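User: Outer membrane protein, Marinobacter nauticus:
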Amino acid sequence: MRKLMIVVGGSLALAAPLANADVLGVGANVSYWDSDFSGEVVNKDSAVDIEKDLNLDSDSNANFTAFFEHPIPVLPNVRLNYTSISQSGRGEIGLEAFDDIPVGAEVKSDLDIDQLDVTLYYEVLDNWVNLDLGLTARRFDGELVLRDQTPLSTKVSETSVDAVVPMGYLAARFDLPFTGVSVGAEGNVISYSGDSLHDFNAYGQYEFAMLQLRAGYRQMAIDYEDDDDKLDVEMSGPFASVGVAF
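Assistant: Predicted structure for Outer membrane protein:
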């Protein structure tokens, strides 16, 4: 399997001397993301449109995040994020056969994408303006399975990509004084040798005691080729989360 890797350690080296957390902090949140899909999947030079041909609908899009922050300036803080996306649908192959499934065939499809992020970051600013910079290592797996629903047909197509990619990480939050309300945005991005990934979200947050309630909009795009298989998809939609921070 082809691995996409670049040298990006310099960004952490630049951030290391800057500000870090004043005290120990830990937190976690869970969220639900109501995303819509668009784009195409390629298998051995044949392509299928996942929106127009497959009629995919969301089954579950779950997200879990945890972080650990500390006051040691040289060592980075740590953030973990896991996203699981499952979509299924029934559709019809369009004007081009896909992986030996003929034109016009009715198909049942399942698309699953799982990704795990490990982010090392530094707090560059930590007051009413909060700014974090760091580096994310993202491990993602994507698989599309199509089953020909033509009577007596046993044709099944499987397209999969997996990779470990480094991505730049940036998060900014602006606290409104004396209200517990803040607005912010965060994202990961990389573009390299024809492949690209980005994952951005913007949100509003209300915090009281240790509880954090957040709602916003998230967009993620994957344009990645793995041997003869390729994912070129975009997911976007609103999300809501609940979390705690100590």
